[in-house]
Amino acid sequence: MEKKEFYKTEEKKSLTYLEFGSIDLLKGKKEVYDFRIDDIAYDWFMVGRYANDLYVYNYLKENIENISNEVFFEFYSEKVQHQEDSYRDLHKLLALYFLN
Length: 100
Hints:
The protein has four helices and two strands. It is of the alpha+beta class.
């Protein structure tokens, strides 16, 4: 789909960006190693987010029988940043556990 068709204009109203770098806290100097915008920024961010989710799901699946409910939910809450999807996430985890 063309941007004009999707946004109903060619004029940008906002910019999605992803910046990777470092900040020297002693000198107050910022260095940018990579900077991406629009679709590639979104895609790169989401790949990292999904990779993190896979790590968390796999860890929980492998340890589900050996950890308490409290530790389970504490680990999940600490490691997964988009908890508004937790209902779906936990269903995915249970499916992985039972399909294994």
